[in-house]
Amino acid sequence: MDKALLEKIEKLKKEKDVVILAHYYVDGQVQDIADFVGDSFALAKKASQVTQANILFCGVKFMGESAKVLNPEKTVAMPDIYADCPMAHMATVEKIKEAKAKYDDLAVVCYVNSTEEIKEYSDVCVTSSNAQKVVGNLKEKNIYFVPDENLARYIAKFMPEKNFIFNDGFCHVHKALTVEDVAKAREDHPDALILAHPECVMATLDLVDYIGSTKQIIEYATASDKKEFVIFSEMGVLHELEKRNPDKKFYLSSHDQICPNMKKVTIDNVVTALERFNTPDIAETEIVLTPSQVEAAKTPLKRMLELS
Ligand code: 13P
Ligand code: SF4
After folding, report:
1. Relative to the CA of 38, which of 103, 111, 135, 242 has its CA 20 to 30 Å away?
2. What is the rounded distance in angstroms from the CA atom of residue 223 to the CA atom of residue 226?
3. Cβ atoms of residues 91 and 125 within 8 Å
């Protein structure tokens, strides 16, 4: 990246007392200027520990909202406030209320990829890296898992003693990765391992070599003796994989693996957002939640941090 731009970003971060948190799916240039890059869980954990007065969250809206819930006293903003995860909106409060009325012994488990409102009605949050552990630690037999059906079906396999109630939410990026893509990847890269995110459909997951969150995929490939990998997740993960493993080859499947919302975050809107901190213009991209919203959504998020 241009040296002058890099210096400008560093100067703004210091002057404005901003920490930049970024998800592995945002553009590689943005990951490079972030103070911390991680998967959803690592980012939520980090957000609960930062000391700066302001947070610039480079990811999608549910991530910025979680950071705000965990830091209500800080200003939390996003480079593009319209970067929103469609799956986050695929659960409804009505359906949660129906499930609560139907089952006595029920836990509402909400994947962090959900709106602040859904979190308010949930008992505990999970991410793809801790869902199995957190749900396994719950005493309730009935689990209403929202919004992602694919992650729910994946973890349900490990706990036959629980009764899962599924919700039909999905990530369009991962759902598009089919069994045909696995077959093509095997044909194109016979020596490679296929590493997939649990947001993929079960038919696809059944055929791959490893399943994990973005961070787990990165750690698995880094520790492996193998030299070639096909990644069934969003293309942004390749940036960190290639950085950590210059001697290994990473491929995508034969079609687009791109989350258009994650890609709304650019170096240009990062700079603009940094300039807006400590000015009235920050209102353009600031995450605003009422104290009662913060209070209600904090309980399931904090419970996740405790249980994982
Ligand atoms: P993780 O970062 O938990 O792997 O989640 C992936 C994702 O889809 C985030 O939007
Ligand atoms: Fe949502 Fe999928 Fe994009 Fe993640 S990759 S933000 S789950 S649409």
Report:
1. 135
2. 9
3. no
**Which ligand 1 atom is nearest residue 24's CA?**
2
Measured between its terminal Cα atoms, the distance across the chain in Å is 37
Alpha carbon of 271 to ligand 1 centroid (Å): 24
Among 38, 90, 96, smallest CA distance to 66 is for 38
Please name the residue that has the structure tokens 């700079």.
Answer: 271
- Note the ligand closest to the C-alpha atom of 127: 1
Strand-pair partners of 204: none
Whether the CB-CB separation of 77 and 276 falls below 8 Å is answered with yes
Average pLDDT value for residue range 1-10: 92
Residue 85 Cβ contacting ligand 2 at under 6 Å: yes
Say what percent of the chain tops pLDDT 90. 92
Domains of the chain: 3-83+262-288 (3.40.50.10800), 87-170 (3.40.50.10800), 177-252 (3.40.50.10800)
200 close to ligand 2 (CB < 6 Angstrom): no
pLDDT in tens, 16-39: 999 999 999 999 999 999 999 999
3-class state of residue 233 by DSSP: coil
pLDDT score recorded for residue 1: 77
Rg (CA), the chain: 19
